[in-house]
């Protein structure tokens, strides 16, 4: 059995991974049979090479950069399905790159992969539009599974072709243009915020479990980290003009999940 036993892998505390285990995951291609591009940005060249290897062995196409300018050139040229971004970058830090990626695309899933594990860093990244946050050292297969889940979600987003509108009181969600209006005013959402609101609107006035949210919003079989859910819901509530203590729209059902309540529009014609 061929294994990765290099000093970098062992020093970072990751469990060596077998090629056979990765090959068993299967290739990830879009409906046109093309490889799914994953933008990988980290200033550690050896780690980038390791991540590229993991992506290739699981059927993904790595698009690698070690600094933000090259990363944005790849982003514009290759239209990746997912971005994997470190926070310790130069000349800009990862937060600046995250903000610029989110400015250029509201819907691309962004996974932050970093050695910075403080709650402040996690909340800041998620509040800026990151979809997931993984702290180094990481488990190889878990990271690949998370990236593949985000790529599947991105594929579903790209498959939305027919114009479809969801409406609930003052909320009007355009599934084709990926836009939200509240009483006629445009509100910009990140990809995860959009998917969360879409799922809640499709289940209007019904309680949706955290397991269902994990599967349909984040693409995971298990609920994502509690901080990810909490920050995403907080961000969405803020953009909807909700008060966390007495929200109009998104209500928490303790121990169960979330519920979007329908309310009449207050728009004056």
- What fraction of the residues are assigned to beta strands by DSSP? 15-25%
Overall geometry comes to globular
Quaternary organization: single chain
Outline the low-pLDDT stretches: 1-28
Distance between the termini: 70 Å
CATH superfamily of the largest domain: Response regulator
CATH class of the largest domain: Alpha Beta
| Strand count | 12
Number of domains: 2
Question: Any idea what the radius of gyration is?
Answer: 19 Å
Widest β-sheet, arrangement of strands: 2-1-3-4-5
List the helices and strands and how they pair.
Elements: H1 7-11, H2 19-23, E1 36-41, H3 45-57, E2 60-65, H4 68-78, E3 82-85, H5 94-104, E4 110-114, H6 119-127, E5 132-135, H7 140-158, E6 165-168, E7 171-174, E8 179-182, E9 185-187, H8 191-202, E10 207-209, H9 210-218, H10 226-239, E11 250-253, E12 257-260
Parallel strand pairs: 1-2, 1-3, 3-4, 4-5
Antiparallel strand pairs: 6-7, 7-8, 8-9, 10-12, 11-12
Plain-language structure description:
The protein is α/β, with parallel strands linked by helices and 269 residues long. It folds into two domains: 7-158, 3-Layer(aba) Sandwich (Rossmann fold), CATH 3.40.50.2300; 165-260, Winged helix-like DNA-binding domain superfamily/Winged helix DNA-binding domain (Arc Repressor Mutant, subunit A). 34% of the residues are buried. It starts with 6 loop residues before the first helix and ends in a 9-residue tail after the last strand. Strands 2-1-3-4-5 form a five-stranded parallel β-sheet, with helices on both faces. It is 40% helix and 19% strand.
